[in-house]
Amino acid sequence: QVRLVESGGDLVQAGGSLRLSCAYSGIFFSVAAMGWYRQAPGKQRDLVAVINSDSTANYADSVKGRFTVSKDNTKNTLYLQMNSLKVEDTGVYYCKVERRSGSAYWGQGTAVSVSS
Questions:
Q1: Residue 59, Cα to own-chain centre: how many angstroms?
Q2: Centroid of chain to Cα 73
Q3: pLDDT, tens digit, 9 for 90 and up, residues 7-65
Q4: Tell me, what's the pLDDT at 62?
Q5: Where are the alpha helices (DSSP H) in 2-79?
Q6: C-beta of residue 110 within 8 angstroms of C-beta of residue 20
Q7: pLDDT (mean) for 54-78
Q8: Per DSSP, which regions of the chain are E strands?
Q9: Number of other residues whose CB lies within 10 A of the CB of residue 77
Q10: 3-7 sheet: strands from edge to edge
Q11: Are 58 and 45 in contact (CB under 8 A)?
């Protein structure tokens, strides 16, 4: 059974930092990519950062240079280090795993609120 559990969301002032974690289980093979998505209030869910099976990473233009995605296979955890946070980074952050078959799995989300 696939399970993704995000944590680390919080209320933080602009300019601050947070690290989000996504603990995953039941997924050990045929993973194409793992990533973070953000859904701001009243908006669609958008890609923030993704790490591919070859360990390359891609970022939304809005977070390049500020966010870093990584994973620790020994802990089965995906991370998102967020620095220099801006008010527009506010939203619910979701972890997503995509398999090569095309199937995808989502976590329940963790809320990040950045105040000015």
A1: 11
A2: 16
A3: 999 999 999 999 999 999 987 678 889 999 999 999 999 999 999 999 999 999 999 99
A4: 97
A5: none
A6: yes
A7: 95
A8: 3-7, 11-13, 18-25, 31-39, 45-52, 57-59, 67-72, 77-82, 91-99, 104-106, 110-115
A9: 16
A10: 3-7, 18-25, 77-82, 67-72
A11: no
